[in-house]
Design brief:
The complex is a heterodimer of chains A (75) and B (571).
Chain A: E1 4-5, E2 14-20, H1 24-33, E3 40-46, E4 53-57, E5 60-64, H2 66-70, E6 72-74
Antiparallel strand pairs in A: 1-6, 2-3, 2-6, 3-4, 4-5
Chain B: E1 3-8, H1 14-22, E2 26-30, E3 37-45, E4 48-54, H2 66-79, E5 85-91, H3 95-107, E6 112-117, H4 119-125, E7 127-129, H5 131-138, E8 142-144, H6 153-159, H7 173-184, E9 185-187, H8 194-201, H9 208-253, H10 259-264, H11 284-310, H12 312-319, H13 321-325, H14 334-342, H15 344-350, H16 357-370, H17 374-384, H18 389-413, E10 422-425, H19 433-467, H20 470-477, H21 479-485, H22 492-498, H23 503-510, H24 517-529, H25 534-544, H26 546-570
Parallel strand pairs in B: 1-4, 1-5, 5-6, 6-8
Antiparallel strand pairs in B: 2-3, 3-4, 7-9
Helix pairs in contact in B: 3-7, 9-11, 11-17, 11-19, 14-15, 15-25, 16-18, 16-25, 16-26, 17-23, 17-24, 18-24, 22-23, 23-24, 24-26, 25-26
The chains are: A alpha+beta (75), B alpha/beta (571).
């Protein structure tokens, strides 16, 4: 299956999170910030050279590393 | 005493509410066994006096950082006493995410009041919340507040005693939140606000960097303007026209020379007092901290607090994240670096925004070695600046190169993980000036309280050490190192000894040594790098632990000798 991650989204594009992979710390923090399976996210920006990306979940803007973004799959 | 505990996510305006509730008598304390700070104040509730505690912001009760750990512990500890009341402060424009913590608090069955803060912003962000409905569902008082204007605070105070444990039952948190949101909140279409547009462009992959450079340039211009104005229009006239004549009278009274005269008034330069070089307790000892450094401290912390409270710093963190990763730390490590530029002590404490031991070690060591505090910076400007911009550039250029190389090397040799940046980017907000000025005052007061006694001690110490010949002895002992490797006169050893107390005094001591530009440049770099001042040293031990601090110290000494030696050869 050809799954797309948050990192593959275009700037300004919205999608729904279908699965997330990462450690306990990541899972906990993501959950408390409102990033969870089923959340609707919008990609706001991405820094050059695999820098951090920013997304909007609900009313919250969140910056996260490129590697983290690659482990959050969306559709 | 009964306690009111303010809890909430970061960036919800908790400290604004705190300052509205408590007025002027506020103390910052460290939570037992940690260096995590929380603030405490008092509030009159009817005839009763209660204590108000501002707990560090947290997203959940499953902590992911040191500050969150303390918040969770405090909630646990104070929740045991059923008399204590918890006020959960919520960003109304972001109800859904904020309710996550609320649900965890509800599960604790503690007396709860919700304060829906930033209520005024809901109007232009297109959010409508039915307060009464939320109150009925959760069964606890819900009060809309706007901390910045003070709206709703009276209402909050009068209803605090109605706090009770919620009887709301739920099995899965987010399902429950979804259910509540569906019932009480409606979103309307709204236009982009100016703040949102600015928020987007300042992390834009192209425009972000030029904007950051512009902001930094403006910041330093404003700092210089404020600092120089205070010095030129207030401090220098006061010291020259009022204090100097007074000191001259004292000098005559003490017989114009002798040991006591030299300790108190210092040496007379051309028959008068030179506030930088005289080195007396009441001349140099007072002028350096108050006349030369304090104005810059005020200016620096004003700008930094503004950048902090407006929400720019996390954006800067995102922009430079890539570069910082080369050093094994992520973009948010810019916060301890910038704070360290004011004073290394809060800088060292701020390293706890970083998650792992490796990151904290690297950030603390980089800061302690290569980031001079503003007191030191002001002295370097004063002393080395005489040789022009080129000399200053040599000092700060070298420190910057050291900062970069050190980061790269430490990242290579340190074991451990460097997680990526993962942080909420708060919307831009005009800072609440009462909170900003309170914070500014606390930072300035810290400087006055800590720096001036140490400064006086430093000056006294210098006088004693010179008089009893210790400096001469140390000078001879370390001559191979000081003169041989670093190329400095042996008298510079006195500055290195005093630098442990106060680095600014130490730099000031270089003044009368008649050093060449090259020597002064090397000495300024060496004094920044070789060792932290005693205040920073103590905090670093607490933050890093003795073992890691020892390693860090070893790196400092080696780096200083290598860099100082190289400069001596190259320049």
């Amino acid at each position: 299956m050809n799954q797309r991650s948050l990192a593959d989204l275009k700037i300004g594009e919205s999608a729904k999170i279908v699965s997330m992979h990462g450690g306990k710390y990541f899972a906990q923090k993501a959950e408390s910030l409102g990033i969870r399976i089923g959340s609707k996210v919008k990609k706001m920006s991405a820094q050059v050279m695999a820098g951090p990306i920013t997304i909007k979940v609900g009313q919250t803007t969140i910056a996260l590393g490129h590697r983290m973004a690659k482990r959050i799959y969306v559709e | 005493m009964k306690k009111i505990i303010l809890v909430g996510n970061p960036n919800v305006g908790k400290s604004v509410i705190f300052s509205r509730l408590t007025g002027v008598h506020v103390v910052a304390s460290n939570y037992a066994g940690t260096t995590v700070e929380y603030t405490k104040g008092k509030l009159r509730l009817g005839s009763e006096k209660v204590e108000v505690l501002d707990v560090p912001g947290t997203y959940s009760l499953s902590p992911t950082s040191k500050a969150e750990e303390v918040a969770t512990q405090m909630i646990e500890e104070f929740g045991k006493d059923p008399d204590n009341i918890f006020v959960n402060i919520i960003d109304s424009t972001n109800l859904e995410r904020n309710l996550s913590l609320t649900m965890e608090l509800i599960k604790k069955k503690i007396p709860l009041v919700l304060s829906l803060n930033m209520w005024d912003e809901t109007r232009h962000t297109g959010v409508a919340i039915e307060i009464e409905k939320l109150e009925t569902i959760l069964g606890v008082p819900v009060i809309p507040t706007t901390g910045i204007t003070g709206e709703g605070i009276k209402n909050l105070v009068s209803r605090i005693t109605e706090a009770k444990a919620s009887k709301y039952e739920f099995s899965e948190k987010w399902t429950a939140i979804g259910d509540i949101i569906g019932k009480v909140q409606k979103l309307y279409h709204k236009h982009h606000t100016l703040a949102e547009r600015l928020g987007e462009i300042s992390i834009h992959h192209f425009w972000g960097i030029p904007i950051a450079l512009l902001i930094l340039y403006l910041s330093f211009t404003i700092i210089r303007f404020i600092g120089e104005s205070i010095i030129g229009y207030i401090m220098e006239p006061v010291f020259e026209n009022l204090w100097s004549p007074l000191m001259m009278k004292l000098s005559a009274l003490l017989g114009s020379s002798g040991l006591i005269h030299n300790v108190i008034v210092g040496k007379l330069v051309d028959g008068g007092i030179d506030f930088v070089e005289s080195m007396g307790l009441f001349t140099t000892g007072l002028f350096v901290p108050i006349g030369m450094i304090l104005p810059y401290i005020i200016a620096f912390y004003f700008i930094l607090s503004f950048l902090e409270d407006s929400g720019y710093l996390p954006r800067l963190g995102v922009l430079i994240d890539n570069i910082m990763h080369k050093f094994g730390i992520h973009g948010l490590a810019i916060v301890p670096m910038l704070l360290g530029l004011g004073c290394n002590v809060p800088g060292a404490m701020a390293t706890r925004v970083l998650e792992t031991r490796k990151e904290r070690f690297i950030a603390a060591t980089m800061m302690a070695i290569a980031v001079p505090c503003f007191a030191q910076l002001a002295m370097v400007f004063g002393l080395v600046g005489k040789f022009g911009a080129q000399a200053l550039f040599m000092v700060f250029g070298t420190l910057f190169i050291v900062w970069v190389l050190l980061g790269i090397i430490l990242n290579k040799i340190m074991k451990g993980e460097s997680p990526e940046i993962f942080v909420e980017i708060p919307p831009y907000r005009l800072p609440a000036f009462r909170v900003l000025f309170k914070k500014l005052w606390m930072r300035i007061w810290y400087f006055i309280r800590e720096a001036i006694p140490f400064m006086l001690l430093g000056v006294l110490f210098v006088n004693i050490l010179y008089t009893i010949g210790i400096i001469d002895f140390l000078g001879k002992l370390f001559q191979p190192l000081i003169t041989g490797i670093l190329g400095l006169p042996k008298d510079a050893v006195a500055a290195l000894v005093v630098g442990f107390l106060r680095k600014d005094v130490a730099i000031g001591m270089l003044g009368p040594l008649n050093m060449s530009m090259k020597q002064l440049v090397i000495a300024s770099v060496v004094l920044t790098m070789y060792f932290p001042c005693i205040a920073t040293f103590t905090v670093l031990i607490k933050e890093l632990g003795i073992k890691d601090m020892f390693k860090s110290m070893l790196i400092m000494v080696i780096a200083t000798l290598v860099v100082g030696g190289l400069m001596n050869l190259v320049l």
